[in-house]
Amino acid sequence: MILPIVAYGDPVLRKVGKEIDAEYPNLKELIANMKETMYNAQGVGLAAPQIGKDIRLFIIDASPFADDEDLSEEDRKVLENFNRVFINAKIVNEEGEEWAFNEGCLSIPDVREDVFRHETITIEYQDENFDKHTETLSGLAARVFQHEYDHIEGILFTDKLSSLKKRLIKKKLENISKGKINAGYRMRFPNAKKR
Question: Could you list the residue ranges that cross the membrane (predicted)?
Answer without folding.
Answer: none
